[in-house]
């Protein structure tokens, strides 16, 4: 009976993760704390039909005080138990039409994609230390890969790429600091999704496909993936043409 917390669960991939977890037996998933910074009818609807297993928590990852308040709220609702899995999904992808010289959104991207991940992880770390699984999945993207930067240069989103590269580095630092305590920290690449943040209908995977494939990785036992950058595995996409192959391998940093 594991407990999960997902940031950015009001829509898209985060909502798909919450739905997938809620569909599993209560013997496997006891609680899903689904956070959002505003109202989400879809998320509220999921909570109402979950028999108390999905709990909606107000959380703005850019507000460190609000993050600490959310951690206190979750701690109270866990009633002395620990949190098993944290999924840092909240993020932003902003564009700069004329490339890096026109980038004026780097500060906001860093606040959400890097500082937000750090603040949330730090605030919930004591609860994770009390949990049995001790897993943290930071949702990343191969667009944050420095090795693969040339192949992704066509997309004018430098702030997103830079901030995800920094988040990947943050993930590794946490992985090194807490591996002796049995933690597994991963930078997880769920694929190009048909979401508002992703590419709409032009993208490869539905949020549901990406959520299932991502949870397959998160569910994997042991610490083998600690400090790694795994891609999801999706049947039929292992040798797809183009930039995106979802073969379950580790991405290059």
UniProtKB/TrEMBL annotation:
Gene3D superfamilies the UniProt entry points to: NAD(P)-binding Rossmann-like Domain
GO MF assignments: oxidoreductase activity, acting on the CH-OH group of donors, NAD or NADP as acceptor
One Pfam family per UniProt: adh_short
Matches recorded under InterPro entries: NAD(P)-bd_dom_sf (IPR036291), SDR_enzymes (IPR052184), SDR_fam (IPR002347)
Domain of life: Eukaryota
Family named by the database record: Belongs to the short-chain dehydrogenases/reductases (SDR) family.
Name of the molecule in the record: Uncharacterized protein
Source organism: Heterodermia speciosa
